[in-house]
Amino acid sequence: MDVKSLISSLQLFYLEYAVLTTAWSATRPVPVLEHDHVTLNCSEGTKWADQQIDWYYNSLTHIYRYETQERQIGYGKWATRARAEAPFQLTLHNISVSDDGFYSCDVGFPSNGVRTIRSAVNVAVPATGLQVLPANTTFMAGTVIDLSCVSLGGKPAPSLHWINETGTEILTEEQEQHEMQLQINISAEYNQKRLVCEAEQDHPLLRGHLIRQEITLDVLYRPHITCELKGGKNLTILCTVNANPPPSYIKLTKLTKGKTLYGEQNIIQYTKDNVLEYTKVNVDKSDEATYQVTAENSVHRSVIDIPLEYQCDSSGECGLARPEEVIPTIEPAENGEGFKNLNMIVIIAVIIPVTIMFFTSCVVWRKCGRKQQGYRSHHDSEGTDLDATPEYKTLVDPDEEASAQPYSA
């Protein structure tokens, strides 16, 4: 036999064998968990007579032959793990991932019109857990980190998701096999934030079975200083420091005006807590300065400056205020006293000018009154006594004296 004839014969044999071993009418999915057992049924009927049944794995590997209850045999790894309780049933014990695949049976001749079913065995392996890398979740603020969530085993590969502490999913890049990465630009706001990696396997026997791994971020960052200032006649500086690790100290320094940071200094308050409070009652011009707050931890040192000027308002009240601010130095009055004081000021401002104008008018009026009275007295004397002494001559015009002669007759 030449080579071409041999190849043709083998192809014909393969086609006949394929038709013989793949003549099933339907495919039935059979989900099963690893290490469990499963019974495969390759016929639609319920009653069968003993006859020869051959079982195949993925259509080609002959794994079992059933003839009668007393006469049946398994091949290869199925020899000890397979057993047929009926002609068209085969039970596999201690299922493993290697058993994943298609199982079909071939009915010996005559087949008596038996319609066979192919079983698609889908072996599920639950993931044993999740691991977040790196294991050390302490990071420095200002760095960019890559967190990896890795599923330990699992078939099918779990679908992984990153979730924040509010339960919202964090969008990430595409998942790669059993790993999902999350990139974060670390800042102080992430300190003590919780992140959760969640895994779910898409398998009929594992749906709804979630695996979660939670981590808490520990972010190291320099001190953040927040100060509240109450200026005026009495000065209060209250500073709070937020830092991780906590500050080793906080100090308040009074920088003499005209000196630089490296010049003459005077530490007026010092604490190892995270809150510093300084109060000065009845401030004066000597308290005008730049007040500097310094906090330090193992990460870095932070400094803020609070320049204060000694200012006085129109009422003469003086106190400390920022250069760009005018801080009231009079405490707000209670029960309407402030309005009373304001009214008094308005009244005084109105009365004084009016009084001045009144007295000025009176002086002018009195002078004019005297002059007019002189004229009236002189004319009255001429009409009553023409021989009277001329005291008022100096007040009478000569022309008027001539005109007055007729009254003397």
Structural write-up:
The chain is built from 3 helices and 25 strands. The chain is of the alpha+beta class. The chain has 4 domains: about 110 residues, Immunoglobulin-like; about 90 residues, Immunoglobulin-like (Sandwich), CATH 2.60.40; about 100 residues, Immunoglobulin-like; about 70 residues, no CATH class. Strands 1-9-8-3-4-5 form a 6-stranded mixed beta sheet, with no helix packed on it. Strands 21-20-23-24-25 form a 5-stranded antiparallel beta sheet, with no helix packed on it. A hairpin with a 4-residue loop joins strand 18 and strand 19. It is rod-shaped. The C terminus is likely disordered.
Shape descriptor: rod-shaped
- Number of domain modules: 4
* Distance from first to last alpha carbon: 193 Å
**What structural class should be given to the helix and strand makeup?**
alpha+beta
On the 0 to 100 scale, the average pLDDT is 77
Give the biggest beta sheet.
Answer: 6 strands, mixed
CATH architecture of the largest domain: Sandwich
Stated plainly, the CATH topology of the largest domain is called Immunoglobulin-like
Tally of extended strands?
25
Indicate the CATH class of the largest domain: Mainly Beta
CATH homology superfamily of the largest domain: Immunoglobulins
Instruction: Output the radius of gyration.
Output: 55 Å
**H/I helix tally:** 3
The fraction of residues in strands falls at: 35-45%
Unreliable residue runs? 10-22, 260-264, 327-343, 367-409
Strand order of the largest sheet: 1-9-8-3-4-5
N to C succession of SSEs: HEEEEEEEEEEEEEEEEEEEEEEEEEHH
Helix content: 10-25%
In terms of quaternary structure, the protein is single chain
